[in-house]
Design brief:
It contains eleven helices and no strands. The chain has helices at about 1-15, 20-50, 60-80, 85-90, 95-100, 105-130, 140-170, 175-190, 200-205, 205-215, 220-245. The relative contact order is 0.14.
Length: about 250
C-alpha cells in the first residue's frame, strides 16, 4: 500500500530533523520533572490517606495527572510536527510531483498522517514508561492506566488530523503551526463560556472527552467523538488536496 510507503518516508524525514529530536528530549525532561513532582506529592500525602476508605492510589495521584499534563504540552508541540506535512510541499513547489504520482489523494493524506502519528505513538510509549516504572516498588491500577493510554492516543490522533488539515490549507509551515495551535486551543476551551449552548459546546470540547477517559470511564460517546473528530479532518484534508489537484 502506497500510504505505508509515504508514512515510512515521513517518519524517516522526521527523525532526520533536529526539531523532532529536540521535541522528544524537551518533552521527556518536562514530563519527567512533572512525574517526579507528582511522585513526591504522593509520598507526602501517603501518611494522610493511609486510613481513608476509597483512598486515591498511585495511578490516580501520579499516572492520571501525568497524562493530563502530557495532553496540554502535546497540544503545544503537535503543531510543530504537523506544520510542514503539506504546506512545505506547496512552498517548495513539489506538490505537483505528488499529483502526478500514481497514488490517490487519500493515500497521500493517509501516508502523511500515519507518518506523523507513528512519531507521536513513539512519544506516547516513552511517556508510558514513567508510570510503568512504579511497578518496581508497588502496584498500579492497570485498568485506569490503560484508559489513560487510550485517551492520550485518541487525543493525539485528533491533534494530528487537525494539524494535517491546517497544513493542507496553509502556504507556509509557520502559518500552519499557528493555525493548528489556535484551532486546537479553541476546541480545548470551547465550553468555558457556560452559556445556554453549553450542551453542544461541551460535546465539541476535546478537554471534556479527554478528562472523561482519564477517569477510567471508557464510554462509546467519547470513543465515537474522537473517531469522528479525526475522520472529519482527514476527509477535509483529502478534499482540500483534491481541489488543489483540480486547479493545477
Amino acid at each position: 500500500m502506497m500510504a505505508l510507503v509515504i508514512a515510512g518516508r515521513e517518519l524517516r524525514t522526521l527523525f532526520l530533523s533536529p526539531l523532532a529530536w529536540s521535541i522528544l528530549g524537551v518533552i521527556q525532561i518536562i514530563l519527567g520533572y512533572m512525574f517526579l513532582a507528582q511522585l513526591d506529592y504522593y509520598v507526602m500525602l501517603q501518611a494522610r490517606i493511609a486510613g481513608m476508605e476509597d483512598a486515591p492510589g498511585v495511578t490516580d495521584l501520579i499516572a492520571v495527572p501525568l497524562f493530563g499534563n502530557a495532553g496540554v504540552i502535546l497540544l503545544l508541540v503537535t503543531p510543530l510536527l504537523t506544520m510542514r506535512l503539506i504546506s512545505e510541499e506547496r512552498r517548495n513547489r513539489t506538490l505537483s510531483l505528488l499529483f502526478t504520482a500514481p497514488v490517490s489523494m487519500t493515500e497521500i493524506i493517509l501516508g502523511k498522517y500515519l507518518g506523523v502519528f507513528a512519531f507521536l505513538l513513539i512519544m506516547v510509549a516513552m511517556i508510558v514508561l514513567m508510570p510503568l516504572s512504579l511497578l518496581v516498588g508497588g502496584g498500579l491500577d492497570m485498568g485506569k492506566l490503560a484508559a489513560g493510554i487510550i485517551a492520550l492516543v485518541l487525543l493525539l490522533a485528533g491533534f494530528a488530523a487537525v494539524g494535517l488539515y491546517m497544513s493542507a490549507l496553509a502556504s507556509q509551515p509557520t502559518i500552519a503551526a499557528v493555525s493548528t495551535f489556535g484551532a486546537l486551543l479553541l476546541l480545548w476551551i470551547i465550553d468555558w463560556t457556560g452559556n445556554s449552548a453549553g450542551g453542544v459546546l461541551e460535546y465539541l470540547s476535546i478537554l471534556r472527552h479527554y478528562e472523561s477517559l482519564l477517569k477510567g470511564l471508557i464510554s462509546t460517546t467519547d470513543l465515537i467523538y474522537f473517531l469522528l473528530f479525526t475522520l472529519t479532518f482527514l476527509v477535509l484534508s483529502v478534499h482540500r488536496l483534491d481541489n488543489d489537484r483540480l486547479q493545477k
